[in-house]
Each structure stands twice: as structure tokens, then as C-alpha cells.
Amino acid sequence: TQLLEQSPQFLSIQEGENLTVYCNSSSVFSSLQWYRQEPGEGPVLLVTVVTGGEVKKLKRLTFQFGDARKDSSLHITAAQPGDTGLYLCAGVQGAQKLVFGQGTRLTINP
Amino acid sequence: DTGVSQDPRHKITKRGQNVTFRCDPISEHNRLYWYRQTLGQGPEFLTYFQNEAQLEKSRLLSDRFSAERPKGSFSTLEIQRTEQGDSAMYLCASSLAVTGAYNEQFFGPGTRLTVL
């Protein structure tokens, strides 16, 4: 059973457009992390959100944690080809293991 | 480079053979995790260590799988009598145990296993 559902699973847009990726769960997490993964490599940590309602910005990327700490979103403004990759959200359970969504494969076309 | 390292990066083996992977965590990190990722899916938790103690194992970790972290530094993951269904990317991550909600895990590049 996938505890974290990401949507969309695939997204292909043109350079310069904005996009939002969603990560939803019926479970409460103590924190949630977003990773980006390139083919053949391990995930790279982008951000950790901890407090319900928290918003964090990383250049053109904006991450939000839901008030109830069950969902999160990633918004990218003015997407660039370098943003292409697999974006993974992961919730922390029991302060130890990560529970991952299935990922959103993002393609930005020049 | 002070990140998490894994060896080998790629392993091709025949069904029924044993394989062993190694993970070297970030030096000051006391927690080490193993995950498995199949094509088109997010990583799935296998097991984790705090120092040399193995504190949790997933139901995914069958009797053919064993992990060790003998001195609380590097870890090995062994798969005995490999099956084609074991083909996957095996990821290692490490973190520094802190009080509170943060548990930021940093991943290695993974070992891609192909069982023929």
C-alpha cells in the first residue's frame, strides 16, 4: 500500500511555464522531504518541511507543507530544462524510515 | 568527497549466486539505511542501523537478505541465492540522529543489480 500519492506521475511542459506537483496522504508525518533524482543516481535532498503550513523557497522552487501535515506541494516557476528529473516526496515515520511517493517524472522542453 | 559512497555501482549476476554490496556513510552520521528502488517506483525501506545495532527490518527483507554494520561505520548488504525479482537499485542513506522531527537522510549513488 502506497502511503504517499504523488500527482501527476508524468508531466511534460515547455520552458518558461509554471507547474505544481502534489504529494498527498491520509497519514500524518512528523516531517516531509522532497528529493530530486537523476537517472542512475541516488536521490538528492532538496528541502525538509516540518511545521504545518510551512512554506520554503529554493530559488524558483516553492515547497509547502499542509496545515495537517498530511500533504505537500512543490511549485516551480518559469521552469527550465535543467529542472528535468524525477521528483520524490518522502514522509518521515517514527522519526526513522522514509516512506516515498512513486515520484513525478518532469520533462521541461526547450 | 564526503558524501555517501556505494560499491559497486553496477552488478550483473546469474540467478542463484550470492552478491554483497558495501555502503560508506557520511563519517559523522550514526544512522544508516538501506532502500530498494524498482523501475518507475519510489525507494522502499529495507532496514536501518543506529551505530552497529540493526533496529528495524522491513517485511521486504526476506531470509535471503542480510545486512551488517559491524563497527558502526560502513555497512554491507548481502543477498543469497539471487532471484530475478531481486533486480533493482539498492540505495544506502545516512543521517545524524537528532532529537525532534528532522531526519534528513542523504543518499549514495546506489548499486544497480541485474539478475539474469
Which tags fit this structure?
heterodimer, A: about 110 residues, mainly beta, six-stranded mixed sheet, about 0% helix, globular, B: about 120 residues, seven-stranded mixed sheet, four-stranded antiparallel sheet
Reconstruct the topology from this structure.
The complex is a heterodimer of chains A (110) and B (116).
Chain A (H helix, E strand, L loop, with lengths): L4 E3 L2 E5 L4 E6 L7 E6 L6 E6 L5 E4 L2 E5 L5 E6 L8 E9 L3 E4 L3 E6 L1
Parallel strand pairs in A: 2-11
Antiparallel strand pairs in A: 1-3, 3-8, 4-5, 4-9, 6-7, 7-8, 9-10, 9-11
Chain B lengths: L4 E3 L2 E4 L5 E6 L6 E7 L6 E7 L2 E5 L7 E4 L6 E5 L8 E8 L10 E2 L3 E5 L1
Parallel strand pairs in B: 2-11
Antiparallel strand pairs in B: 1-3, 3-8, 4-5, 4-9, 5-6, 7-8, 9-10, 9-11
Report on this model:
- The complex is a heterodimer of chains A (110) and B (116).
- Chain A is 0% helix and 55% strand.
- By secondary structure, chain A is mostly beta strands.
- Chain A has strands spanning 5-7, 10-14, 19-24, 32-37, 44-49, 55-58, 61-65, 71-76, 85-93, 97-100, 104-109.
- In chain A, the strands form two sheets. In chain A, strands 2, 4, 5, 9, 10 and 11 form a six-stranded mixed beta sheet that branches.
- In chain A, a hairpin with a 5-residue loop joins strand 7 and strand 8.
- Chain B is 0% helix and 48% strand.
- In chain B, strands 2, 4, 5, 6, 9, 10 and 11 form a seven-stranded mixed beta sheet that branches. A four-stranded antiparallel beta sheet of chain B has the order 1-3-8-7, with no helix packed on it.
- Chain B has strands spanning 5-7, 10-13, 19-24, 31-37, 44-50, 53-57, 65-68, 75-79, 88-95, 106-107, 111-115.
- With 116 residues, chain B is an all-beta fold.
- Chain A binds chain B through residues 4, 30-31, 33, 35, 40-45, 48, 50, 88, 90, 92, 95-103, and chain B through 4, 6, 31, 33, 35, 40-45, 48, 55-56, 91, 93, 101-110, 112.
Helix- and strand-based class of chain B?
Answer: mainly beta
User: Structural class of chain A, please?
Assistant: mainly beta
Number of strands of chain B: 11
Order of helices and strands of chain A: EEEEEEEEEEE
So what's the oligomer here?
heterodimer
Number of strands of chain A: 11
Q: Could you report the average pLDDT of chain B, rounded to the nearest whole number?
A: 92
- Globally, the shape of chain A reads globular
- Estimated radius of gyration of chain A: 13 Å
| Strand percent estimate of chain A | over 45%
The major β-sheet of chain B equals:
7 strands, mixed
Q: Mind telling me the C-alpha Rg of chain B?
A: 14 Å
Strand composition percent of chain B: over 45%
